[in-house]
Amino acid sequence: MEFRLIDRIRERTAQGREDVRLGIGDDAAVVAPPAGQELAIAVDTMVEGVHFPHGTDPADIGWKVLAVNLSDLAAMGASPAWALLALTLPRQPVAQVQQFIDGFADGFTQLAQPHRLALIGGDTTSGPLSVSVAVHGFVPPGQALVRGGARAGDVVLVTGTLGDAAAGLRLLQSGARVTEDARAAYLIERLHRPTPRLQAGLALRGRATACIDVSDGLLADLGHICEASALGAELEASLLPRSPMLLGSFDDVASLNFALAGGDDYELCFTVPPSLVAEVQGDLARLGCGATRIGRMVEGAGVRVRDEQGQWLESNHRGWDHFA
Ligand code: ADP
Ligand code: MG
């Protein structure tokens, strides 16, 4: 049965690429990397009950496990080419397995196709539901965007809006019915179907001094840039880009906490020298995601956030608050 399943995956994800010499079906895939390019490689796993709730639509799982990987390539300024897929599926009747595979493959392909990403192999085992994808992308030598290159005085920017996915998760957990509320539907869609900012990542090559994708929340991920760059960051709470759907669904304190500490947005957070901010913002606006300046890099360590009155926000048991 495994073989018919793999055939099904191959058929539903088919994507012709000349650089794939051997795809699904042999002992290993054989690919021809372009001369003079470096490879950027990443892998991410999603486990049922940990990274997505039981009962999540298989198409959403297929989209998201690819999206989180493509987001890692975006954060490196790499353009995607190939993927591997390791599937662990519970033992269940064939019809159910097929239904899962078909949905999963369709969600995966919806995102893979526009990026011309080819699924070239994988592994299939039985056990608790878990999906892993590894992606390979190209980047010109020495041009990968890294976390450690920020300089004091650089401006911190972020693409898109922050906090939507965490708000969507909160709504799901509180039993919101998507059909009843367009704002809730938007936020839950942002959770299930994040948009990897691949074009933005390419546009940042040679201009951003540091870059990371926001998967664990802005404070945590900008914290990684700070650590790698041996600097601190100062943010203005009032500048954090929040969607009208988020602001319409939660009060100011809750939406600020989602924007600062919520995960799963898969926006890019990056630093650029002040002289490049305007042109980078112009380019990212043309790409549709936009980029908002939210603060700057400073000597020191750690991320600090200032409110509109200039008071530093502090962390407490409810999250980040005007508690100082
Ligand atoms: P082997 O035992 O040689 O690893 P497998 O039976 O695991 O062979 O896989 C057969 C072929 O199918 C290989 O080319 C492998 O890459 C591919 N494959 C297996 N599982 C998947 C999957 N979930 N998605 C994509 N390709 C897969
Ligand atoms: Mg195998």
Automatic annotation (TrEMBL):
CDD domains: ThiL
Catalytic activity line of the entry: thiamine phosphate + ATP = thiamine diphosphate + ADP
Protein name: Thiamine-monophosphate kinase
Note: Reaction mechanism of ThiL seems to utilize a direct, inline transfer of the gamma-phosphate of ATP to TMP rather than a phosphorylated enzyme intermediate.
Annotated substrate binding sites: 51, 264, 320
Taxonomic lineage from the root: Bacteria, Pseudomonadati, Pseudomonadota, Gammaproteobacteria, Lysobacterales
Gene: thiL
EC numbers, comma separated: 2.7.4.16
GO molecular function: ATP binding; magnesium ion binding; thiamine-phosphate kinase activity
Residues involved in ATP binding: 122-123, 147, 215
Coiled-coil zones: none
UniProt keyword Membrane present: no
Sites where the protein binds Mg(2+) 2: 44, 72
PurM-like N-terminal domain: residues covered: 25-139
Gene3D superfamilies associated with the record: PurM-like C-terminal domain, PurM-like, N-terminal domain
Function: Catalyzes the ATP-dependent phosphorylation of thiamine-monophosphate (TMP) to form thiamine-pyrophosphate (TPP), the active form of vitamin B1.
UniProt binding sites for Mg(2+) 3: 27, 72, 213
PurM-like C-terminal domain mapped to chain residues: 151-306
Residues given in the record as Mg(2+) 5 binding sites: 216
Pfam families listed in its UniProt record: AIRS, AIRS_C
Family: Belongs to the thiamine-monophosphate kinase family.
Class of enzymatic activity (EC top level): transferase
